[in-house]
Amino acid sequence: MKIDLLAFGPHPDDAEIGAGGTLIRAADAGVKTGVVTLTRGEMGSRGGTAERAAEFDAAAAALGLVHHAMLDLPDGRLASDDRSREAVVRVLRDLRPSVVLAPYWEDRHPDHPAASRIVQDAVFLAGLARYDTGQPPHRPGEIVYYMAAWEFEPSFVVDVSAQFERKLAALRCYGSQLHNPDRRSGEPATYISSGSYWDLLIARAAHLGRRIGAAYAEPFRIRGLVEVPDLVAAFGGRTY
Ligand SMILES: [Zn+2]
Fold first, then answer.
1. Rounded distance from Cα 112 to ligand 1 centre (Å)
2. Cystine design at 59: which of 24, 42, 173, 222 (Cβ 3.0–4.6 Å)?
3. Which residues pair with 7 in a beta bridge?
């Protein structure tokens, strides 16, 4: 199986929060998309692994993913070590993505920058012929970083206005994690389970969308540059 656009999440829900609209838009255009989580989210304060796996399956269907899977790296203890790098190299060589999505390299939860580092390291190692996993080498063209809690000035944004309602529907699959007024579990509230976090996700997308004259947009960073070959074609139609 070949996946064109593959998103890595530290935990089930991160890739969907950061890039769900972009993944839906790609799927709408016929791009083969996938999400792989590095952990099963077993350290989460809310929800158990079985519930979180069921939420992940439901969100994958809502996003139109061709592939979704969870690795078994330790939640709360992610680090770029041999085991984690090799696990991700195996995924990269198996699915051969053209472009990889990863969490931004700075964030509030320590697993997020750790996952970012693991993916960055594994993308390099996956291209080395002598890093032997019994699979042919493969290196994606770019790592594109999505936003979680901590914000950054984006390298670019993706207009997800036409996909935004479906993104929210995919996020609602994570009833144990994100804002869910119907849940009466007695579990502790978390940073992302509050109504204000849900409101922030929508407000952030609307704010970024406004900056490109759209309703909603998702922000991304890359370490390199985006080339614009034709300034008039890229910017000449702007009316805002
Ligand atoms: Zn996370």
1. 6
2. 173
3. 35, 101
